[in-house]
Amino acid sequence: MSDSIASLERLERQLGLLLVTGVLLSAACLGIGLLFYLIDGASVVADRCLRTGLIVLMATPILRVVVSVVEYVRMRDWFFVATTVIVLAELAWTLGFAFTR
Fold it and tell me: Which of the 8 DSSP states describes residue 53?
C-alpha cells in the first residue's frame, strides 16, 4: 500500500513540476515577445516568441496527460492507463480536427 502512495506522490510532484515549468517558460516567451513587439513593432522575432509562448502554454496540459500515461503504466494501474489513453486520443483528434480547418 505504501509503495502505491509513494508512486502517486512522485506522480503528483512530476506533474506539478511540469505544469510550473510549462507556465513559466510560456510566460517568459510571451514576455520576451511582448517586449520585442513594443520595441520593434510587429517583427518576425516578436511574432515567433509570442507564437512559441502560446504553443508551450497549449502543449503543457497535453504533456501532463502523456506523463500520466507513462507513470500509470509504470504503476500497472490499467484502469487509469486506459482512461488517460482515451483522453490523449481525444486531445489528438481535437488537434487534428483543428489543424484541418
Answer: H
82 pLDDT exceeds 80? yes
Please tell me the distance from the alpha carbon of residue 16 to that of residue 95, in angstroms, as a whole number: 24
As a whole number of angstroms, the distance between CA 49 and CA 66 comes to 25
pLDDT band, residue 80 (cuts 50/70/90)? very high
Place of cell 500515461: 69
Please report where in the chains the cell 484502469 appears, as a residue. Answer: 79
Contact 69, 89 (CB under 8 A): no
Q: Range of 16's domain? A: 2-100
Amino acid at 78: W
Q: Say how many domains are in the chain.
A: 1
Tell me if 15 sits within 8 A of 70, measured CB to CB: no
